[in-house]
Amino acid sequence: MSQAADTPLETRIPHPALALRDANSQFDGGDVSFIAVCGILVFFMVPGVAFLYSGLSRRKSALSLVWAVAASNAVVIFQWWFWGYSLAFSPTATNGYIGDLRSFALRKVLGDPSPGSPLVPELLYSFYQMEFACVTVAILMGALAERGRVFPAMVFTFIWMTIVYCPIACWAWNINGWGFKWGVLDYAVHHLFPTTPASASTSTTITIITPQHPPKRRARAPGGGPVEIASGISGLAYSWALGRRSERELRNFRPHNVSLVGLGTFVLWFGWLGFNGGSAFGANLRALVAIWNSMLAAAMSGIVWCLLDFRIERKCGRRS
User: Fold this and answer.
1) Which InterPro entries match (predicted)?
2) pLDDT tens for residues 163-182?
3) Could you list the residue range(s) of the whole structural domain that residue 154 is in?
4) I need a labelling partner for 246 at 20 to 30 A (CA). Which of 3, 90, 160, 278 fits?
């Protein structure tokens, strides 16, 4: 009798849990947990934008803006799963403009190392990048304020994600994108790697890796190009296409709920820590620096705003 026949069946067929454990062994548990939490924090920015837009609008339009942001979030999630991630981050497309359908419906996206870090699985990387797309479209939905309809905006969202956001993300963040190859500077473009020499374990040197001489080509962190510039220019174009609001509606315009504005601002502030901190794709010093910079930037912006408001109005607080 052969050796295979003598081997018990349960040892010849690996248990799914054992295969999953082997797949997880190549990743860093701390980095995976950190990026997962940061992705969830970025998701909180979507309701933060909804609260902010709702509070800044008139009462009659408040609910429609919340609905537009929520519905667009669902459309983006479906589009990203369907083909958005593949169009933006497919590693096999070499045209430099847009990806192919290698990862259609997240096929072949599970336990492979991610483009952002070999210590993070690609499935988590796709989730984290999806939340950036959700926030981008949520910002864009502000163009609907008091004059746009929700259903046409959802059709526009799916098309815009496919022909605008995914190509721009591919240009800047995909290792095969033309912008990435040319060294286009986006947020967190320089990577800091602490290296400790074996002969001097107590000393640490910091090596700055520039785009021209990277040790290993990795996808860059999300930043201002595909997110802020794309949403801002597209929102301007959408507003221009919808047309100007009537002059009668613009007279004595005031936000209907300042409390919602404050709530949305703090939720955005909270989520932005994951937005910037997670861009390091690991629980490391670079992430802590990004979080600290985010806190300082938000704090100083608030202080300067209050000082300017006091200089103009000669008082602090709500205007009469």
Assistant:
1) Ammonium/urea_transptr (IPR029020), Ammonium_transpt (IPR001905), NH4_transpt_AmtB-like_dom (IPR024041)
2) 999 999 999 999 899 988 88
3) 29-187+218-313
4) 160
